[in-house]
Amino acid sequence: MGVMGELLKKLIERIRFFIPRVSISFFVFLLFVLASMIAAKIINWIFSKSNFRKDILSLAQKANKVAFLVFGTVIALGTAGIDVLALVAGLGLAGFALGFAFKDILSNLLAGLLIIIFAPFHQNDRISIAGLEGTVIEIDLRYTTLQDKNRKILIPNSTLFTNAITIIEEHQQ
Q1: Which of 38, 43, 67, 162 is the most buried (most CB within 10 A)?
Q2: pLDDT digit of tens for each residue in the chain (173 aa)?
């Protein structure tokens, strides 16, 4: 048997070793996807039985999906034999660096989360903030969208969180 035969034999041995691991890893990831779907159904059921606002439901659904997919990916990679400690440490350092790079975006996300939770204003309320006025048509994690006569105004949530807001007309929920 020549050099090529030895290399082919080693390759086949490695494939036989990794196929079961990769298969189990894929199955573990699919379990997390399934668990995410089940958790989404439970979240929808809980929110349908209570009087939470739709934007909080949307936030809970997104957080559920991201959490399950991140944990599922890390656990699946660990099952496949990849050293996830180094991966998690690397993600932590990358997250720290990205936090500084995207601090404005992160402050908008955090402000959006707090606006959704504390609800100083609601959809269809007419508000004034930093010289801008309009009817709130959407509140998401990054921007609050106001509709003025013939223009849409996207206001970063950090601006809403750090400036005085005047509620001109409150819409009954």
Answers
A1: 43
A2: 677 778 788 878 877 777 888 888 899 999 999 999 999 999 888 888 877 667 777 778 888 898 899 889 888 888 888 887 877 777 777 877 877 777 887 788 888 888 888 888 888 899 998 888 999 998 888 889 999 988 999 999 989 888 888 888 887 65
**Residue 51: φ, ψ to 5°:** -110, 40
Q: How many degrees, rounded to 5, is the angle at CA 143 between CA 139 and CA 145?
A: 60
Asked whether 152 and 138 are in contact (CB, 8 A), the reply is no
Task: Name the β-bridge partners of 134.
Answer: 127
Name the DSSP letter for residue 82: -
φ/ψ of 129, rounded to 5, equals -150, 130
Out of 3.40.50.720, 2.30.30.60, 3.40.430.10, 2.170.120.12, select the CATH number for domain 121-169: 2.30.30.60
Cβ atoms of 155 and 143 closer than 8 Å: yes
Environment class of residue 108 by beta-carbon count within 10 Å: exposed (0-12), middle (13-18) or buried (19+)? Answer: buried
The structure's pTM equals 0.55
Using CA atoms, how far apart are residues 83 and 91, in angstroms rounded to an integer?
13
